[in-house]
Amino acid sequence: MEDLQTTEETMFVVDEVSNIIKEAVEGTIGGNAYQHSKVNQWTNTIVEQILGHVTKLNKPFKYIVTCVIMQKNGAGLHTASSCYWDNTTDGSCTVRWENKTMYCIVSVFGLAI
Amino acid sequence: MDRRAELERKKQKLAMIREEKERRRREKEAKEHEEIVTRITKPDKDLRAETEELLSSLGIPLGNDGSLIRSLNATPETSLSPIPDQSLTSTQSGTGLLKSSRRQVKLSVVSVHQANIPPKESVTYNKQTQTATSTIDKEAHPLDYYVLTYGDVPVEEEGEGCSLPSNDSESPALYPRHHGPHKVAGLPKIEMVRPAHVAEGDNPLTPGHADLQKKVTGTQDLSEEEKQQIMMSEEFHSFFDKASRIVERALYEDIDICVDYTGIGEEQEGDDKSGIRLSVNRCFVDDRWSKNRTITSFDWSAQFPELLVASYNNNEDVPHDPDGVCLIWNLKFKKTTPEHIFHCQSPVMAACFAKFHPNLILGGTYSGQVVLWDNRSNKRTPVQRSPLSASAHTHPVYCVHVVGTQNAHNLVSISTDGKFCSWSLDMLSTPQDTMELTHQKQSRAVAVTSLSFPYGEFNNFVVGSEEGSVYTACRHGSKAGVMEMFEAHQGPVTGIDTHRAQGHIDFSHLFLTSSIDWTVKLWSLKESKPVYSFEDNGDYVYDVSWSPIHPALFACVDGMGRLDLWNLNNDTELPTASVVLDGSPALNRVMWAPAGHQVVVGDDAGKIWIYDVGEQLATPKSDEWTMFMHTLQELKNNQVDQDLDALTSLSSSGFSSGIR
């Protein structure tokens, strides 16, 4: 019994989190063009929404959510991240979204308590 | 169950005690108004005593208040936890629960996320001009055409017999020189203000010229000295140059003033000619300059379709003559001398007209220099030269081309060390852009011998190399450089030409290559194998050229003096027309006239032959393009059949029936 519980309740489920991220991003900036005045608001909204949804899952996890919105100007962007954690329980999910005027990269890291 | 009842009873008792307390407090308050000080302390003690009495009567164990509260507080928690016993114990047991649930955690490093957004590559175009810093031009004139003069020019001019020495006459308006009059031709002194001569000399309104004229008309008899002086002057030379050209043309014209339009007594030559497919029209040769020199390249002027530039190799018999010669011939007039004569120190391997500048002629030489001649000047030597440095070319330049549009064009030159340089015509001191053409698999550079840009293309091109392979490459973009390789021939590729005839079907992906391995091959950019191989020749094939108007017609020349015209819609096995030149010289170059009715052939004795191509052969009919499509399809099918036959013949007899 206890093993089942640890796999479902105490493991990072990537698909679930990925859906949450997609919904949040689409809802906030889907269909909008890059606007310097609004970008701050967007990033905040996205991060808060995702964090809210993810904590509602009531899992014993610590979460870290990052959101990068970059205007499409012809510049290149290169990031990388690496983690040292327990692979069986911890995980992350990154979603890359773009439209004609901007890129949006959201990462959610979940670390089991 | 008992326990619960007990607990409930305890609750009730507590409630009762609380009620009593409240009652007592109310009474106390009422009494307080009467007796304040003494009665404050008393009721507290009474209350406590009373509660204690009550509780002790109930049998509840009395420790301190704390323990009672704790046990009472524990009641709500029990309903939550599945194991009620454990919740009443101290917190120590709580941590024990957590400890038992924590597993052995194994931590590992995970490379989680990478985001890569590549930058947009933008190709930029840069145009700049630069004046050379070699001359210290103190007194420059606004009418000067050339600020550039080279210090080593005198070396070349010394060898000339009829060069125009730079000299000044004693015109009052010009600058006094520090040397006296020259009597010996060929001792030029190159001065900075020399261009000013040309400007002032040409303008008849300048006072200097007027003075000169007065001088001439004033005295009746000119002494020998004065005559010499006039003949040596700049103005005289430029006038003489221009006038002599015009007179020459007029003298050679043989317009028949007795022409008879009624047609009686004269045979019409039209019928005869229509039967002849290839006939000699003219031969251009200059005894002084083109004799015994191999012709290395041809080009037509875009603005004047009768002008043809031919570049020549060196003449081994006459080592003192300049090694590289470039002549401009005029097809319109019947005179047998070239329009312009240019030369330079190193054999010219490739020459072309600057497409958008009618007066500039460019040449690529054996020494790796790219030279620029101008026919506005009276000089026969280059007005601009690229440096002999590692930034430019250090190997023979076999191909020069002007590509681009009127406002955005470049000179492109490739040398046999694979270096591709792109130049601006204003500035030959450094190339605008250089590139090494190396095939990805080999680290060696491609030794380019021939180059062709497809019609309408400025970026992609095809090159033939010394190893016998053909490469496609492009100039700009992220994949600048060699793209594909075709294993073409077994010997160096001598000529490459991309399809030029424009019609309703686009064949610009086709190109022809000729090589020392006796074959001419037809290729398509879309396929890595040749479409067809023409093997009718018995000697090295030196050049091949598509007709500019007929989609299926091309010409090739070989080392035995044979000029072949192939019409692929007619016959793909044998040339449609073939002729051997008089004396069987080795023919080095072939090119079609832009009108498509004449073929120009150059041989290794310095002669240029103009052949007329019969109307029926040269002019395409309206269905030639569709016929050519069919011809190509047939060739492809034949190729497939050949491959199949080869496969079946290789296999053993037992299997052959199965495959068929």
Give a brief outline of the structure.
With 113 residues, chain A is of the alpha+beta class.
Describe the structure.
The complex is a heterodimer of chains A (113) and B (660). Chain A is an alpha+beta fold. Chain A contains 3 helices and 4 strands. Chain A has helices spanning 2-9, 14-29, 36-56; strands spanning 61-71, 77-85, 91-98, 102-112. Chain A has a 3-stranded antiparallel beta sheet with strand order 1-4-3, covered by helices on one side. In chain A, β3 (91-98) and β4 (102-112) form a beta hairpin. In chain A, α2 (14-29) packs antiparallel against α3. Chain A is globular and about 40 Å long. The two termini of chain A are 19 Å apart. Chain B is an alpha+beta fold and 660 residues long. Chain B has 14 helices and 29 strands. In chain B, strands 2-29-28-27 form a 4-stranded antiparallel beta sheet. In chain B, strands 3-4-5-6 form a 4-stranded antiparallel beta sheet, with no helix packed on it. A 4-stranded antiparallel beta sheet of chain B has the order 7-8-9-10, with no helix packed on it. Chain B is elongated. The two termini of chain B are 97 Å apart. Chain A binds chain B through residues 2, 6, 68, 70, 74-89, 92, 94, 96, 103, 105, 107, 109, and chain B through 101, 103, 105-120, 122. Chain B: Its main location: cytoplasm. Chain B: WD repeats lie at residues 486-533. Chain B: Residues 4-36 form a coiled coil. Chain B: InterPro entries: DYNC1I1/DYNC1I2 (IPR025956), Dynein_IC (IPR050687), WD40/YVTN_repeat-like_dom_sf (IPR015943), WD40_repeat_dom_sf (IPR036322), WD40_rpt (IPR001680). Chain B: Keywords: Coiled coil, Cytoplasm, Cytoskeleton, Repeat, WD repeat.
How would the blueprint of this fold be written?
The complex is a heterodimer of chains A (113) and B (660).
Chain A: H1 2-9, H2 14-29, H3 36-56, E1 61-71, E2 77-85, E3 91-98, E4 102-112
Antiparallel strand pairs in A: 1-4, 3-4
Helix pairs in contact in A: 2-3
Chain B: H1 2-32, H2 37-58, H3 65-80, H4 84-88, H5 91-101, E1 108-117, H6 153-157, H7 194-202, H8 207-218, H9 224-232, H10 234-252, H11 269-275, E2 278-284, E3 295-300, E4 307-312, E5 324-330, E6 340-344, E7 348-353, E8 360-365, E9 370-374, E10 384-385, E11 397-404, E12 409-415, E13 419-423, E14 433-436, E15 448-452, E16 460-465, E17 470-474, E18 481-486, E19 493-498, E20 510-515, E21 520-524, E22 532-534, E23 541-546, E24 553-558, E25 562-567, E26 577-580, E27 587-592, E28 598-603, E29 608-613, H12 615-618, H13 624-650, H14 653-659
Antiparallel strand pairs in B: 2-29, 3-4, 4-5, 5-6, 7-8, 8-9, 9-10, 11-12, 12-13, 13-14, 15-16, 16-17, 17-18, 19-20, 20-21, 21-22, 23-24, 24-25, 25-26, 27-28, 28-29
Helix pairs in contact in B: 1-2, 7-10
